[in-house]
Amino acid sequence: MLSGIQPTAGSFHLGNYLGAVRQWVALQETHDAFYMVVDLHAITVPQDPAELRANTRLAAAQLLAAGLDPERCTLFVQSHVPEHAQLGWVMNCITGFGEASRMTQFKDKSARQGNDRTTVGLFTYPMLMVADILLYQADQVPVGEDQRQHLELTRTLAERFNATYGGTFTVPDAYILKETAKIYDLQEPTAKMSKSAANAKGLVNLLDEPRATAKKIKSAVTDTGSEIRFDRAEKAGVSNLLSILSTLSGETIAELEEKYTGKGYGALKTDLAEVMVDFVTPFRERTHAYLDDPETLDAILAEGAEKARAVAAETLAQTYDKLGLVPAK
Ligand code: ATP
Ligand code: MG
């Protein structure tokens, strides 16, 4: 099991948590899990060095606060394991230019930035992600729906390499939970909630002041009509709130629909705001506690990198050998 999160913005948002990190916490109990802060992915767009440094530690602190336990999983920073960049290069060399050009996330992100500000790194990002996954011979990759195409590319490249050079990589599956695969922007409930969202009011950051979060939920865009029912086509806003509430409270969508029969959107929002505040308040406290002790945090990451490297180095050596690269003596 392998997954990663970018340190591009300070706080994780609700989509990151429900779509990915929440599953990571559960899966560390049942799988040999590798989780990382993907700082090399973050530099595919302009970054301020001091912010990147702070955000990398902040991301690790949030992962620990969310419940990752270094005794149960391997938590590390991508750049601490140089094999990622090395295998990334190999993956670039077996990917077609047209194939890479069809990645929709690249098309979206580059369209937003314009040609002159779009880096080649952003273009080759999916192949680095492929390397991230294949290095650990992962068979499951817990991610949000937006990563499905990159997972398909991972499978394609693993199969291509295996077919060309002989069995080397495990071909992984995406692990995407239907209910939380895509959390939507609160103001624009047909768009993915994203760190790079245009409208801050639609983005629920876990580290924001809990009162501000409650306010954002109360001003979420809902739909015409007043009935509370799950219907993505007709009621995108209400459906988004229902899936968030269902996951955080443990009640099923059907139970919630029943519970809110005859009640208005206001009741749903008030309850969700309360559940959110109860969730983010201790999360923020735990995150700050980890940040207040940077030595312990760095030690956890150093130990994680060492464990990760042992596995990654083995896979890279096999890959280089299959390719015909002469080993250094
Ligand atoms: P960016 O917009 O800069 O790509 P991001 O919000 O997508 O940032 P990432 O670090 O790229 O954040 O993604 C971390 C994980 O969170 C990935 O597994 C991704 O699929 C998941 N994820 C991101 N946004 C959502 C969302 N709105 N709903 C569900 N999962 C999401
Ligand atoms: Mg993303």
Number of strands: 5
Tell me about the largest β-sheet: 3 strands, parallel
What best-fitting shape do the alpha-carbon axes yield? globular
Give me the side-by-side strand order of the main sheet: 1-2-3
N- to C-terminal distance: 33 Å
Mean pLDDT: 95
Beta-strand proportion: 5-15%
- Give the structural class: mainly alpha
Helix/strand order: EHEHHEHHHHEHEHHHHH
The count of helical stretches stands at 13
The ligands bound in this entry are: adenosine-5'-triphosphate, magnesium ion
List keywords for this structure.
single chain, 329 residues, 3-stranded parallel beta sheet, two-stranded parallel sheet, globular, binds magnesium ion, ligase, Trp-tRNA_synthetase, aminoacyl-trna synthetase, nucleotide-binding
Concise synopsis of the structure shown:
With 329 residues, the protein is mainly alpha-helical. Helix content is 55%, strand content 5%.
Give an overview in words.
With 329 residues, the chain is mainly alpha-helical. It has 13 helices and five strands. The protein has helices at residues 14-27, 39-42, 49-66, 83-92, 97-101, 104-113, 120-134, 148-165, 210-218, 236-249, 253-259, 265-291, 294-323; strands at residues 2-5, 34-37, 74-77, 140-142, 173-175. The strands form two sheets. A three-stranded parallel β-sheet has the order 1-2-3. Strand 1 (2-5), helix 1 (14-27) and strand 2 (34-37) form a beta-alpha-beta unit. The longest helix has 30 residues, at 294-323. The model has no long low-confidence stretch (mean pLDDT 95). It binds adenosine-5'-triphosphate (ATP) and magnesium ion. Adenosine-5'-triphosphate binds at residues 5-6, 8, 15-16, 19-20, 143-144, 146-147, 182-183, 192-196.
